[in-house]
Specification:
single chain, alpha+beta, Thiol Ester Dehydrase, Chain A, five-stranded antiparallel sheet, MaoC-like_dom, MaoC/PaaZ C-terminal domain-containing protein, HotDog_dom_sf, Fatty_acid_synthase
């Protein structure tokens, strides 16, 4: 094994992202091709009943994906990664991504790891929750 072995119960992270900005949402719209105006136009998001612009769910998922890939490192292999969106992220929100190892086992000379992962805003409200499986 090239990476440090982990055990069930170990924590992952935290990865703290800078506050989400409206510029970031415009840039993500262009990068992702998701030009829904609820992500960039305040008036449209208000009229849609959202109380203002919200970040793309996939952007928040990408933050959690960054936590997972940084944890795995270049020698690891991601097997599964999925999330559920549990709350809205707004411009100005500070997102912290974390995780917890649920299961490990040795497979040959590598270690299989299954973990729960999540992202929470500055109030501690989870906005994304999911799981990842990887081999290191």
């Amino acid at each position: 094994m090239t990476a440090k072995p982990v055990q069930a119960g170990d924590t992952i992270g935290p990865l703290v992202k800078p506050p989400v900005t409206k510029t970031q949402l415009v840039m993500y719209s262009g990068a992702s091709g998701d030009f829904n105006p609820i992500h960039t136009v305040e008036e449209f998001a208000q009229e849609a009943g959202l109380g203002g612009v919200i970040a793309h769910g996939m952007l928040t998922m990408a933050f959690v994906g960054q936590l997972v890939t940084e944890t795995i490192g270049i020698e690891g292999d991601l097997l599964k990664f999925g999330v559920r969106f549990t709350g809205m992220v707004r411009p100005g929100d500070l997102i912290t991504c974390e995780g917890k190892v649920l299961e490990t086992r040795i497979e040959g000379d590598r270690q299989f790891v299954r973990c729960e992962v999540w992202a929470a805003n500055q109030k501690g409200d989870k906005v994304v929750a999911g799981q990842a499986e990887y081999i290191i």
